[in-house]
Design brief:
The protein is of the alpha/beta class and about 250 residues long. Helices cover about 35% and strands about 25% of the residues. It has nine helices and ten strands. The protein has helices spanning about 40-45, 70-75, 90-100, 110-115, 135-145, 165-180, 190-195, 215-220, 230-240; strands at about 1-10, 15-25, 30-35, 55-60, 65, 75-80, 150-155, 180-185, 200-205, 205-215. A six-stranded mixed beta sheet has the order 6-7-8-3-9-10, with helices on both faces. It starts with a strand and ends in a 10-residue tail after the last helix. About 40% of the residues are buried.
Length: about 250
Amino acid sequence: MIEVVDFCKHYRATVAVEGLSFNVQSGQVLGLLGPNGAGKTTTLRAICGVIPATGGAIRVGGCDVATDAVAAKRMLAYVPDDPKLFDALTVWEHLQFIASVYRVSAFADRATALLEEFELAPKRNVLAQELSRGMRQKLAICCAYLHQPRAILLDEPLTGLDPHGIRAMKQSVRRHAAEGAAVIVSSHLLALVEDLCTDLLILHHGRRMFFGKVSDARAAFAVAGGDASLEDLFFHVTEGAGTPSDQT
């Protein structure tokens, strides 16, 4: 569903990502990990077509993001770490707008269900500028889910969420994956990644350090006899404790 082949992104003399390849199948939840500046957000923004790649190819559902952008974007949703909403629109008007953009007919029932799921129903007629940070995050998630995307990109999705919102977010990721969506979750919250994700992609200085199952990462890096936590793995990889014996 998501295919990245030899992706490169350069900003003049700065190399943000170099030679990155990986894929995410339907039903998989990929945890995207790396320290600040590793290239995580750059990769997500390139997949959804916000920024152009310097080199390589990116496809969503078989559609090339560079040459068939509209078809690719119809299949995906992206929630950045700081979603930009329309301050002059209400919560419901945001959903109406998204339904119009993605040509979602008879959207009202699904939109209402999403508002209920993320506890935004009482805020239906409230302007976005009057929402708290967490409520704005919830609204962005509802907008992302409205057109039932087949590829979902989430950059720090728990930012600002209360415990109820965190639970709803995690449940929604599991449900969408079970229904066949390919999901990428980028987060510094290692417990979230360990709880949700079926696969890992670890980046460091714009390069892939590991791609595969969590169990395979433990074996590849020979950390603590194969039963290390994700935190142990993360610091082992990103602090130069060694390179994997068998990158997937």
